[in-house]
Amino acid sequence: MRVDGGCHCGYLSFEAEADPAQVAICHCTDCQTSTGTAFRVNVPVPGASFKMLSGEPTRYVKTTAQSGNPRVQAFCPQCGTPIYSTSPGDNPASYMLRVGTLRQRDQLAPKHQFWFRSSRSWLADLASIPRTEKGRAR
Ligand SMILES: [Zn+2]
Ligand SMILES: [Zn+2]
Q: Measured between alpha carbons, how far is 79 from 54 in angstroms, rounded to an integer?
């Protein structure tokens, strides 16, 4: 399916062709750190289908702790929203898009969980944590 999205401030926007069956959660410790939260939701898209529509992401390259391979992490230089990871070099075979940046995210529910061994232990009990329909009063 055709997907499109962008960062929080609107500087970056992009489009791609994604297979909803490939949406997955990543519980690796790098995703926990670089998102600042418990896990990341990703969908891989073919490199040829990915197109930046506006803006130029900042690219940060680091060897990942759990796979040992160098990965490019791309994010907005203005607002910090992570938008994808990919392989170093020109014309990569695929991009891992961050599903929370996609307009179609309601249709992109995760179908699998990777690196579950480093998942946060409380995730299994998420449904039992008290809920409020809106945010914390400040
Ligand atoms: Zn931005
Ligand atoms: Zn990860």
A: 14
Give the helix/strand (H/E) hosting 35. helix 29-35
Distance 137 CA to ligand 1 centre (A): 26
pLDDT band at 65; cut points 50, 70, 90? low
Decide if pLDDT at 51 tops 90: yes
How many whole angstroms from 115 Cα to the centroid of ligand 2? 7
Nearest CA-CA partner of 27 in 124, 136, 104: 124
Cα(35) to centroid(ligand 2), Å: 10
- pLDDT digits 0-9 by tens, 3-15: 999 999 999 999 9
Q: Which ligand is nearest to the CA of 9?
A: 1
